[in-house]
Amino acid sequence: MEEPPNEWGKKAWEHLSLVRTHSPLIQCITNFVSMDLMANTLLSAGASPAMLYSAEELHHFTPRVSALTVNIGTLTPSWLPAMNTAAQLCSSLSIPWVLDPVAVSASPFRLNACLELVRLRPNVIRGNASEIIALSLASSTQPALNHDAAPKGVDSVHESMDAIEAAKLLAQTSGAVVAVSGATDIVTDGNRVFGAHNGVAMMQKITATGCSLTALIAAFVAVDKSHALDAAMSALAVFGVAGELGMKMAKGPASLRLHLIDALYGLDEAALLSHVNVTTLC
Ligand SMILES: Nc1ncnc2c1ncn2[C@@H]1O[C@H](COP(=O)(O)OP(=O)(O)O)[C@@H](O)[C@H]1O
Ligand SMILES: Cc1ncsc1CCOP(=O)(O)O
Ligand SMILES: [Mg+2]
């Protein structure tokens, strides 16, 4: 019997092709750990990264970008004005921007910074399961966070499938598309929920793969602004497939980092049609 066509695979290929053709300029206000991998991920996908974060140049630069990513990984008070100004500029100019709430439950300072950024209306919020659960809880009722249950650092202590309801709620309260990475990458607009069953567990052993994925989402949304959910899903699937193909060559995290970038650069339509595995979750 003939296989049904892989509609999400086709869509992922269309989005990746648009990124390669248009090479969207992506501003990344991000943590020091992720700058290198994030910029290289964007370049290998065909986008143009710019890791500019000085408040002095935002009014000149940010209005000319195709999308922005704001990542609070190594947050200090001095970074916040630039993050807020860039986010405000994007929201007022209808430039898509994506928030990565790294380690949002690590401190009240970080949580409050994130809540302020959520109020500036990101188009997409991407985090791991623990981050989305914590931000969703705080966005809806503002409870005191239970620090015993919350992770202490940047890595998730929850499974992505356990964050579906939290992701839907965060999408509804924020108006953003919400993406949760993990064994299954989940995307929701608060109503529809899709999951990409791609990627390999070893990707967790490379620092900043999550941050880089968030920037990739920004690049994909930049080329399909009116379909943020589809674009985010494509980015998650593409990154996951690159991880799977890279893993065939890798011996461990260090060589996976290298082969992941090479695989992303070399992805073709046949690879996406045969590997992208997206299903409707609810
Ligand atoms: N158990 C897993 N199996 C397959 N892929 C995974 C797994 N855990 C994470 N990934 C992939 O690793 C990448 C980074 O996700 P994650 O580790 O959740 O982000 P973060 O670094 O923000 O915690 C994503 O592409 C995700 O799909
Ligand atoms: C280790 C670390 N510490 C502060 S930011 C950061 C990188 C986190 O990257 P990711 O969220 O992609 O794992
Ligand atoms: Mg992260």
From TrEMBL:
Pathway: Cofactor biosynthesis; thiamine diphosphate biosynthesis; 4-methyl-5-(2-phosphoethyl)-thiazole from 5-(2-hydroxyethyl)-4-methylthiazole: step 1/1. Its cofactor is Mg(2+). The keyword tRNA-binding does not apply. InterPro entries: Hyethyz_kinase, Ribokinase-like. It catalyses: 5-(2-hydroxyethyl)-4-methylthiazole + ATP = 4-methyl-5-(2-phosphooxyethyl)-thiazole + ADP + H(+). Its EC number is 2.7.1.50. Coiled coil: none annotated. One of its GO terms (biological process) is thiamine salvage. Keywords: ATP-binding, Kinase, Magnesium, Metal-binding, Nucleotide-binding, Thiamine biosynthesis, Transferase. SUPFAM superfamilies: Ribokinase-like (SSF53613). It is an enzyme of class 2 (transferase). GO terms for molecular function: ATP binding; hydroxyethylthiazole kinase activity; magnesium ion binding. Thiazole kinase involved in thiamine salvage pathway. Belongs to the Thz kinase family. NCBIfam families: PRK09355.1. This is Hydroxyethylthiazole kinase. It comes from Clitoria ternatea (Butterfly pea).
